[in-house]
Amino acid sequence: MLKVAKFGGSSVADACQFKKVKDIIEAEKSRRYVVVSAPGKRHSEDNKITDLLYLCHAHIKYSVPYEQVFNIIAKRYQGIIEELGLDIDINYYLDDIKSNINDDVNIDYLVSRGEYLNAIIMAELLGYDFVDAKDIIFFNYNGQVDFEKTNNKIVEMLNKHKKAVIPGFYGILENGKIKTFSRGGSDITGSIISKAIGADIYENWTDVSGFLMADPRIVDNPKQINKITYRELRELSYMGATVLHDEAIFPVRDASIPINIRNTNNPDNRGTIIIDGEDSDDSKNQVITGIAGKKNFTVIAIHKEHMANEVGFIKKVLEIFEEKNISIEHIPSGIDSVSIVISSEDIEQYLHDIVEQIKIKCNATSVKIYENMGLVATVGRNMVYKKGVAGKLFTALGENDVNIRMIDQGSSEINIIVGVENKDFEKAIKAIYGAFVK
Ligand code: ASP
């Protein structure tokens, strides 16, 4: 058994968290490769080291002294080392970083130092080797990972280092410059390494025990999701249920490696397992896997007499949105009507212009705008096997006095989306949860 264990910012925020990580790693010999983020927040008013490094860069860019911010960062690391009683000359590393700072310091280099320093400290604490991400993660000039080179190098390097800590979040460009992934990208590093070495499982340690069936700010004490497929996860995270970086899914999914989301503060909880495909097992009784949603959508309802007979009508409508580069969420349609659902934030400044154009270019009979709409997605791989799921869902909403303004179900049948007014959003989620979860 071979595991890659990635620890997010809150799992490595201070010395106490580092000790928890050590216990977790020592509990299983299979946890041979460890990926770390930079120290995250220790409490809600605290700062993430990565944010402070970005702030440092902003100071440098605007020629404002950056030392004060840098010293806050330095103190965090000095404190961690002191409390762990480690013999690392952290000032040597900090001075080296400082010596590389000049007016046009590469921002990616600077902000990646958070994970770099953390990985050095973690390696020392665990007695593992330190392997720098710049030696194993390679980017092309177009900013994409060069997977072939990266995979080969990871295999070659990690063959030499049977136990290693690797900093997440960055790699190197062909010109030798450091390049980072987008924020939260240490998840991607862990996924790439898991694939390259053929790990049996990719553990992603964070501060929650995986995914919950609904947002705990809306539903009291929602059940934990024990198992979820990649497709379900994609639907739920698109609707706001995020724990993992979107792009982290692809490398391990390609290699059919499950991801296990675990809680560093509660290692006894087995967390959520993300698996590929629809498995046969256990969970068929559980009809839905989770509920998620987002507020603040605008619906543009277009009516045109005899629309059904007019070839290319919808294309004309969509082109108007394309010209403004606005992405569309849903397009529910009737015989002589079609509605376009868009995020209110995206459409705000173009709304009147777009309505005008629909009237003129598409010769619409009427165009109505409905603002302040929420979308609620009920997701479940097992829905397809059960009769009456939609009926139960709509009954629950009706009985709880929620007016459904839109319904959309993809033919894959893993997702039923309902549009409700923002004011009914929480009520809708509670009603659906109540109807399906015992
Ligand atoms: N430290 C980086 C961030 O805050 C990357 C990560 O934590 O995954 O975005």
What layout of secondary structure does this protein have?
Layout: E1 3-7, H1 15-27, E2 31-36, H2 49-61, H3 67-84, H4 90-99, H5 107-126, E3 129-130, H6 147-160, E4 164-167, E5 170-172, E6 178-180, H7 186-197, E7 201-206, E8 227-229, H8 230-238, H9 249-254, E9 259-263, E10 272-275, E11 290-303, H10 313-323, E12 337-343, H11 344-347, H12 351-361, E13 366-379, H13 389-399, E14 406-409, E15 415-421, H14 425-436
Parallel strand pairs: 1-2, 1-7, 2-4, 3-4, 7-9, 8-10
Antiparallel strand pairs: 5-6, 9-10, 11-12, 11-13, 13-15, 14-15
Helix pairs in contact: 1-3, 2-3, 2-5, 6-7, 10-12, 13-14
The structure holds aspartic acid.
Please tell me the CATH architecture of the largest domain by its name. Answer: 3-Layer(aba) Sandwich
Give the CATH class of the largest domain: Alpha Beta
How would you sum up the major sheet?
A: 8 strands, mixed
- Provide the β-strand percentage band: 15-25%
**Average pLDDT, to the nearest integer?**
93
CATH superfamily of the largest domain: Acetylglutamate kinase-like
Structural class, by secondary structure, is: alpha/beta
CATH topology of the largest domain: Carbamate kinase
- Integer-rounded radius of gyration: 25 Å
The number of distinct β-strands equals 15
Number of helices: 14
Helix and strand run: EHEHHHHEHEEEHEEHHEEEHEHHEHEEH
Helix content: 25-40%
Ranges where pLDDT stays below 50 over 5 or more residues in a row are none
Query: How many structural domains?
Result: 2
Note the overall shape. Answer: globular
The span between the termini is 36 Å
State the oligomer: single chain
Question: Ligands bound here?
Answer: aspartic acid
